[in-house]
Design goal:
Spore Coat Polysaccharide Biosynthesis Protein SpsA, Chain A, 12 strands, 10-stranded mixed β-sheet, Nucleotide-diphossugar_trans, two-stranded antiparallel sheet, transferase, 8 helices, Rhamnosyl transferase, single chain
Length: about 300
Amino acid sequence: MRTEIIIQLVLYHDAHYLEGLLSSLKAQTFKYFRVFAWDNSSDDQSAQRFKELYPDGHLIKSDKNLGFSGGHNALLKQTLEEGADYVLILNTDVQIHKDFLKQLHNQMTRFRGVDACGPLIYEGLAGKRTSKVQYFRLYMDFIKARKSSPDSGKVLNTSKELPVSADVDYLAGVALMVRTEVFNEMFLWDEDLFLYGEERDFFYRFRKQRRLAMVTRKAICWHFHDWSVGNSKSYQREYYYLRRNKILYFKKYRLKRGMVCFLLSEIFKLPVSAVWTIRKGGIRMFYLYWLGIWHGIRGIKGRNDHL
């Protein structure tokens, strides 16, 4: 049986999500896939849990945390050796519909000129699947690094309220399928970013090569990210990297106009962002929010071991 899709998972302190994810993988109607997992030196037995729940998966344990970017890049080397047509980058905190792989594969085989395809992503909340859209169509002003998501936040009675498919500027790293032949000409994630903002960087390069991305509502998944305000450490880390990596993006591609607009906007909205960050994650989040901006300006890259 030929493997057509390699599914890549990067594990890090997410053992509690794996049963839901791996159960949904086992239930797939499309069977021509393998699962490669990279454990980023987790200390919550994520690797052991993966092997217990999915013994057929290929697991690699790292002795250090390479981040989302480094883990997926390391796996991609093995994926390309496998010779599969497609690679699916997938978060561990998701569950997928039983026809998820079938529908993404159908879309990619039908539209040969499309090099990447993403699903309809609903929010998962308190362990339950909702009909609230997190991401579907995503558009980006790459010069200013401003995204728009016209479907986010909508609560749907049926997915038919959305277009069957649409061309988009980029895809969420939560779940996206890419033709492996793309990596003959470009690499996957920028490891300098470590965490967050990788999709923007990737699809900027992707678009410059005149490649096409699309989404289909027929492929559905649920993202069980912890949306609670009580998850302050996660928010602190997230917004540090989001701010820092946006500036690193501007500097990498010499997008001076975007950089100036971004910094002026942050200064102008400082009173509002101060109130918002303190409510969301305390004084430390406000500090890390601006530390991220400062580190971006200074060009500090990779993992911050002090978060």
